[in-house]
């Protein structure tokens, strides 16, 4: 794996206008806002996973919030009620934003400190691609869970999310522009396809280190996948009731009804309204938004990049 340089943010880096006034900078083949780049640099320099750590990796809008809830409840089964009072992104902090970087906050008391040196089941999230994060990830026996989602639903979910942000209030982001940027790979943490492939390739033949799952698999066979996830984490369920409790506690219907997740206030840990993480939670929602031409364009790229694996279209 190539050495990732400890360079700081540098205005001579390749840059590309993304949406509105937001400019993305290219770092080792992937696109970042300056804000994310700062936390990423700190993380790469400082984060040494412990052997008991669980890292949830994902491209944004692929089911991160759902997986954070599931991981937290499987690992901390006796304190599953914490989900009622804490946003999933508070229970499982995002490394490059909440542990390192400008939004870093001290961990709530029920979370082990990220500076702890004693092995424990700490859980962190990251949107960093494996091509950048891999060197840190392989430095210990930590486990990596990756969730992937169909590119068209990911894009539509992302487009909705951006339009809830302050910067889109005056000048909403058009779907045409979002599709163009997605297809060209100019997305924060993108290109999407390379992000998915980075983890998918690494996961092959390493079932103890990686758990690679799709949002669609989780939707269609939730209990089966949740049981597999618990086994992977080394915390298998004793009975069906436990599985059902975890599935129910982490369903979008349950989560979106907790006061903490209902608020349209900006979250202090991620620059988004707290309720923006729970929209529809459906497979195939892109059909309500994308035109036939947009779908064909994305499908061509998907088949070219994934060769019928992961997602056929
Ligand atoms: P939609 O916008 O398609 O509804 P992320 O957590 O990575 O930001 O992904 C957000 C997407 O996951 C949103 O998709 C959101 O509605 C969906 N989601 C959030 N919580 C979920 C849950 N518990 N179960 C299923 N989907 C969920």
Number of helices: 16
Overall outline: globular
Low-confidence stretches: none
Strand content: 5-15%
Task: Note the topology.
Elements: E1 15-17, E2 23-27, E3 30-32, H1 34-46, E4 54-58, H2 64-75, H3 82-85, H4 88-91, H5 95-99, E5 123-126, H6 130-137, E6 143-148, H7 151-163, H8 167-170, H9 175-184, H10 192-203, E7 210-214, H11 215-220, H12 222-232, H13 240-249, H14 252-256, H15 259-262, H16 292-306
Parallel strand pairs: 4-5, 4-6, 6-7
Antiparallel strand pairs: 1-2, 2-3
Structure overview:
The structure is a single chain. The protein is α/β, with parallel strands linked by helices. The protein is 43% helix and 10% strand. The chain contains 16 helices and 7 strands. A 4-stranded parallel beta sheet has the order 5-4-6-7, sandwiched between helices. Strands 1-2-3 form a 3-stranded antiparallel beta sheet. Strand 2 and strand 3 (30-32) form a beta hairpin. Helix 12 crosses helix 13. It binds adenosine-3'-5'-diphosphate (A3P). Adenosine-3'-5'-diphosphate is lined by residues 58, 60-66, 69, 153, 157, 160, 250-252, 255, 277-281, 285.
Question: Brief overview, please?
Answer:
This protein is an alpha/beta fold and 313 residues long. The protein contains 16 helices and 7 strands.
List keywords for this structure.
16 helices; alpha/beta; binds adenosine-3'-5'-diphosphate; 313 residues
